[in-house]
Amino acid sequence: MGAVAVMRAISLHDIQPDAAILESPFDRLLSTVCHRFEAMGIPSFPGAELIVSSSQGSEPHIAAPQRPKGRWGANE
Fold first, then answer.
1. pTM strictly above 0.85
2. Chain segment 27-68, per-residue pLDDT in tens
3. Which of 11, 26, 29, 53 is the most exposed place for a label (fewest CB within 10 A)?
4. What residue ranges do the domains of the chain occupy?
């Protein structure tokens, strides 16, 4: 998640770099964990949601899973 930290620092501190070469800026922690599960050949639900919700200090709960588009059906 270093690329995201660099982008945030540029924005917050009004830095004007000539260029910034960033690799793999992830959109959300949940989707990053989902992708890691899928890369290992393990279903991401409900494991990813449990890991992310427990890492945020709240009690694990699964109300409505939030996943990136294209993850729910076969018509991706």
1. no
2. 788 888 898 899 999 998 888 888 887 655 555 455 555 555
3. 11
4. 27-57
